[in-house]
């Protein structure tokens, strides 16, 4: 990767997508390139550099999954064992799910309960224990192991498993199992660690569309296992290089066996047409691009968007950290497409949207929803579908300080069906063009659920 071209691309795209700060890192065939642009905050600007800390968001789930696999290799856990073997206090709304759900089902998003649950259970060492004590509030939407639906709460529970079997807090365990042996010394969980270093704050549009600092900055402590890591671009790219390697750190420390590393990126559940990929390994989303497997995970927090993609067959990885939403969601895939083509010659194909007749689209109409999000699907006027999204005000109250929670304003996106694929759709406008999803039908051919941003939202009413 030509570092000058990378620098020009992120500078131009940061301006185009209104992103104040970007850090990018590329690894390809033994060579590293970094590029940084912009500032950490529009209110208190400092230049973004290679050591600037950003929130990695849900990319942190890959650390949780890797730590669990490491514990499995050492005999501390079994992936197919019931979670209650390790967290005996677990009580879910569904008694059958309580005893049946396995550790693997937490890590591949098939646990089946509502996944977007963000209560603040304090900043003490008991934060995860208190979170787990409230999981009986979550509706069980599907039996464990039967359907993929992105599940933050399941990863929080996996973090509690790690606490039980190691005797450490989640953060201490991850530092001992992952960060220290890999030399990731610029990665942190606690705001008190982050605030003594250069760090980025998130940004979001205000009511008049001007960019403003997003508050609060941090997730509650109980979200650490699902997405609480703050890291710099060098550490994030080093994490990718570890997963491209043989299970050893840069100094030769054995963290995982080569087979264990491979296990993380072998499909455990398929969901063709999902926004994240066509399959899921253990913590990593998988897909095919240019005839080779791509492995990746993105991360979103309050006003920050991160992305990490790997192509093991090309010894290639791209790490991106941005501090604006939805701008980062637009910037990241464009940078990825350009870097991928420049390094490997692979051109990322985009889904082809097609118009459809009313009688084809009518079966998809209805109100779909669960905790966190509801979506009304109606017919458009040009052979398309209108998705009107409503954020759950209760979820917003959990995620934001009560006096700063935004009003849950609806968002309308246009989607069309994907050429050649039954029940798949692709957004054709707004901040997420090219993002895909799909509808799920019952045995009678009627739509019974909508897969939206990785979440499986059941049909609530026609």
Question: How would you portray this structure in words?
Answer:
This protein has about 450 residues and is of the alpha+beta class. It folds into 2 domains: about 1-350, 3-Layer(aba) Sandwich (Beta-lactamase); about 355-460, Lipocalin, CATH 2.40.128. Helices cover about 25% and strands about 25% of the residues. The chain has 14 helices and 22 strands. The chain has helices at about 5-15, 60-75, 95-100, 105, 125-135, 150-165, 170-180, 190-195, 225, 235-245, 260-265, 325-345, 360, 395-400, and strands at about 20-30, 30-40, 55, 185-190, 205, 210-215, 230, 270, 280, 285-290, 290-300, 305-310, 315-320, 355, 365-370, 375-380, 385-390, 410-420, 425, 435-440, 445-450, 455-460. An 8-stranded antiparallel beta sheet has the order 2-1-13-12-11-10-9-8, with helices on both faces. It has an 8-stranded antiparallel β-barrel with strand order 15-16-17-18-19-20-21-22. Helix 2 runs parallel beside helix 6 (about 150-165) and helix 5 (about 125-135) crosses helix 6. Mean pLDDT is about 95; it is low at about 395-405.
Keyphrases for this structure?
2 domains, 462 residues, Lipocalin, Beta-lactamase, alpha+beta, single chain, 25% strand
User: Major sheet: order of its strands?
Assistant: 2-1-13-12-11-10-9-8
What characterizes the major β-sheet?
8 strands, antiparallel
General shape: globular
Q: From the 3D structure, determine the CATH topology of the largest domain.
A: Beta-lactamase
What percentage of amino acids are in beta strands?
15-25%
Report the mean per-residue pLDDT as an integer.
93
The strand count comes to 22
Q: What is the CATH class of the largest domain?
A: Alpha Beta
- As residue ranges, the low-confidence spans are 395-403
Q: With helices defined by DSSP (H or I, 4 residues minimum), what is the helix count?
A: 14
Instruction: Quote the distance from N terminus to C terminus.
Output: 51 Å
Percentage of residues assigned to helices: 25-40%
Specify the structural class.
alpha+beta
CATH architecture of the largest domain: 3-Layer(aba) Sandwich
